[in-house]
Design brief:
Helix content of chain A is about 35%, strand content about 15%. Chain A is of the alpha/beta class and about 525 residues long. The first copy, chain A, has a seven-stranded mixed beta sheet with strand order 11-16-15-17-18-20-19, with helices on both faces. In chain A, helix 9 packs across helix 12 and helix 13 packs parallel to helix 21. Chain A is globular. The termini of chain A are far apart. Chains A, B: InterPro entries: THDP-binding, Thiamin_PyroP_enz_TPP-bd_dom, TPP_enz, TPP_enzyme_TPP-bd.
Chain lengths: ~525, ~525
């Protein structure tokens, strides 16, 4: 068995059986080993940012990591932005990055670069096997680290039983030529820790007390069990519950207790948290603004609010903590489960900010996976429009590195082939990883992408004003405007092998969305939005 | 003047007047400052790899750096692969990367990452201005470092008078809000150094001696003056002259003495250098294989060949050294200038490896800039087919990080609006930075892109065998094959605003290529290549 076969077999032994790949010469032995192990599903991505984003989407839904196969430093570099998002989502990802043969490193050949330094910017765990005999052990360690709640920075993220971190295994090409040791069994990750009974009692006293309390929940707490516990607490004590603006994964819709997401803007959060005396963090971090603005605080907690860390955001069992808290303060209370999906009819009118979301909310199929990179267009409209849609999971833009949507949708569809995936995708962001559409076509994935085409980086217009730089003149506008020429996403998608249509009205969107959902394979709908 | 205006005015004072930009919130003050300084041309790129590749292409042709404007760590990360290529091309680039306000850093907000570490993987010079008062000085230092032959790793690259390195200036958002100092005048770069008379005499004795000698020339030596000197030396002494496989910039065609480029494969280089007793490096580095292969050496110099470093590849004046050597050994010899462009007629037949290049060679217009990312398709055919084409410059894939062609073509066209740009682009590589086509359309650039569509990562099939992994089975083939579905580049290009046609025969390619060159603005021709 050579040094490429050992990691492959080790991954398969542990249950990692999908590899999002964009290989090169230094990874050819891995590619050859795939032919001998068809249990590993190799998924070709035509850009490394697609591979890493797909691995993120896959693991958010599958509850276990996928591998990526990346070519040297530049290949890893192309995947960094979506690994940043995965890191912020606490998604487990195992990167296998090929490197030059060890004898070749000192020659400083054209593709030589500092892979270790690039990997360290996004990885919790980076290792180079020192000999072919170490590859199996190091591969198992990479998976354990990716799944480990014990790794610094790797919190519990166990809707589906995982907690996640980014592992990067850098394998010199010559190790994969050499004879290696047999695959290694799973190294188990340390178990998640539980909060103490004393912590539960203290928090119970707080939420049952007279002062206004809110929970801020993240991670595994945003699955059905966590949300039910939070809702019991709310019903019994009046304690509000919030989640981050764009969580990694959030359960929503009919049958799922509702939770309010914090707004993107500080002003919105200030209103949401007004009057709250105690903010209790449950697997969440203290809320901060995405950016600093002149004269505004970066911490979003109002000055008079005390922050309590009930469940740390790393390595603790959020669901158990929330359930124990609910059992303590609301032993006989049941959660309120929103009733059956009813939506007012959506008037037929030109598409614009707001009304497209109502169409999606009305037509969302049960158990959809909604990948949300709608950014400006969805910011104040999507969650309300889908609040009592059919039950679904939403996967958010955790790290704010745009270009996540199309790849995450591909990965989620591979993880859950029986579920429809709906990707709500801002136009500007779509272009970063547009070739992910081809992977959706190659793999025949049931993804319906709705491009929200407002022909601009809309968020930047608002940001220019917020940083105190005033209104955009011609030069600034040229950097926000995605027109001149307008991008025709139907043509681009068709060119990538994804059937595409264009919708200009709510009726057209509704008809095209229903048709796309009813037809197997990927589809793209370009929703042309009129200025608000 | 605020801290965004100072660097802008400093750049303009120094003559840096093009900025390839993909900004975000942390760069909004720079964007606003563009409105007050229309002399700075802001060019919107829809992905950061397009911005950095365009900056590379611009500087290779303009002889002075462009700036890039990138958003935080993930924005820089997306630009790293083409900065790697620029670094390997010794191109001067000045990156301006916005960062969060200093007060915001400790909050670890969603986009926070280690920008400095990512920047260091590709940059010769990285600095963060510590106060707004330092921004002007640090901006001038960034440009001086980018242009400096004195920076470690920054060799002379002065076809057009520049030598190049990558500078990255990381500017905290709050510095750009604050009051700053006036712009700073140019800090001059240290002059290039000259080889000694003794070095010239030693080398002259070698090339005039009885043993076979070859020059390996790179950098500024590959412009017209350097090639003429090399040809005089050849004519007088029989000394062969070679250049790297894919140099950053090489002058070729009618009126320009020919030089042989080293092959990509070690076997080819072994044949080329067979019998050479002395290899003299002239602004070049010792040739190495791009990858290691089992049982093959990484150094390409044959065992019996002695290597002499006549002109170091960093900081020395290559043109002067070559000219002085020519004046010593060939004082009365004139270079051989290839005669007028004559091409045998190309038979009308289906396009395949080899014949497309003959069409390009026959129809290449005078003073074309040829951006060569043809990889497998051009490897053994392009240079012979264009050897006596009209005079032109070729820009090569220096760092082997694919996805350079379309952006470099955009940058070169902005640097040289009066010259036609021809981008010979492999299909797989094109998809990495495909949105660069939109920038070509937005800026109305005279770029003719020929997609060499062989529907595969053709180079990888060969590499699988070369690393000893044998023939590809179904799983490996799935990772090399760009079909299922076929990508329709005419649709993709049209969607990006670039008119596109498809050619299946040499006659169709010839007709479409001529039409594209005769029509202003960008065009794309998808050349469908039959298997050889």
């Amino acid at each position: 068995m050579n040094g490429a076969e050992t990691p492959l077999r080790t991954l398969l032994n542990i249950g990692v059986d999908v590899c999002f790949a964009n290989p090169g010469t230094s990874e050819m032995q891995f590619v050859a080993a795939l032919d001998r192990h068809p249990a590993m599903r190799g998924v070709l991505c035509l850009f490394e940012g697609v591979a890493t984003g797909a691995a993120d989407g896959y693991a958010r839904m599958a509850g276990r990591p996928a591998a990526t196969l990346l070519h040297l430093g530049p290949g890893l570099a192309n995947g960094l932005a979506n690994l940043h998002n995965a890191r912020r989502a606490h998604t487990p990802v195992v990167n296998v990055v090929g490197d030059h043969a060890r004898s070749h490193k000192e020659l400083d050949s054209p593709l030589e670069s500092d892979i270790d330094a690039a990997a360290a910017t996004v990885s919790h765990w980076v290792r180079r096997p020192q000999t072919a005999a170490h590859i199996g052990r190091d591969t198992a360690a990479a998976v354990a680290a990716a799944m480990s709640a014990g790794v610094p920075g790797a919190p519990d993220r166990s809707h589906t039983g995982t907690s996640g971190a980014i592992s990067t295994l850098i394998v010199a090409a010559d190790l994969s030529w050499e004879e290696s040791a047999p695959p290694v069994p799973h190294l188990s990750a340390p178990p998640r820790r539980c909060v103490t009974r004393a912590d539960v009692e203290t928090t119970a006293a707080l939420v049952a007390g007279a002062e206004h309390v809110a929970l801020l929940i993240d991670g595994a707490g945003l699955g059905e069990r966590g949300l039910q516990a939070a809702d019991r607490i709310r019903k019994a004590t009046g304690t509000a519950a919030f989640c981050p603006t764009w969580p990694a994964r959030l359960r929503r819709g009919v049958g799922v207790p509702a939770i309010q997401s914090l707004g993107y803007r500080a002003e919105t959060v200030n209103q949401q948290l007004a009057g709250i005396k105690h903010l209790v963090l449950v697997g969440a971090r203290e809320p901060v603004a995405s950016f600093a603005y002149p004269g505004r605080p970066g911490l979003l907690t109002p000055p008079g609010t005390r922050v309590h860390r009930f469940v740390p955001d790393e390595g603790f069992d959020v669901i158990d903590a929330l359930s124990e808290l609910a059992d303590t303060v609301a032993p006989d209370t049941l959660a309120v489960l929103p009733a059956q999906d009813t939506h007012p009819p959506v008037a037929d009118e030109p598409l614009r900010t707001g009304n497209w979301a109502k169409v999606i909310g009305a037509l969302l199929p049960p158990e959809a996976i909604v990948v949300d990179e709608s950014i400006t267009e969805g910011m104040n409209t999507l969650f309300s429009a889908t609040a009592n849609a059919a039950p679904h999971d939403v996967l958010g833009l955790t790290g704010l590195a745009i270009g996540q949507g199309i790849p995450v949708a591909a990965g989620a569809a591979i993880a859950c082939p029986e579920r429809p995936v709906v990707c709500l995708q801002a136009d500007g962001s779509a272009l970063y990883t547009i070739s992910g559409l081809w992977t959706q076509a190659r793999e025949k994935l049931d993804v319906t992408t709705v491009i929200l085409n407002n022909r601009s980086y809309a968020i930047l217009r608002a940001e220019l004003d917020r940083v105190g730089a005033g209104q955009a003149g011609p030069a600034a506008n040229a950097l926000f405007d995605l027109g001149r020429p307008d991008i025709d996403f139907t043509a681009v998608a068709t060119g990538m092998g994804v059937p595409a249509t264009r919708a200009a009205s709510t009726a057209e969107l509704a008809e095209q969305f229903s048709t796309a959902l009813a037809t197997p394979g990927p589809h793209l709908i370009e929703a042309i939005l009129q200025p608000a």
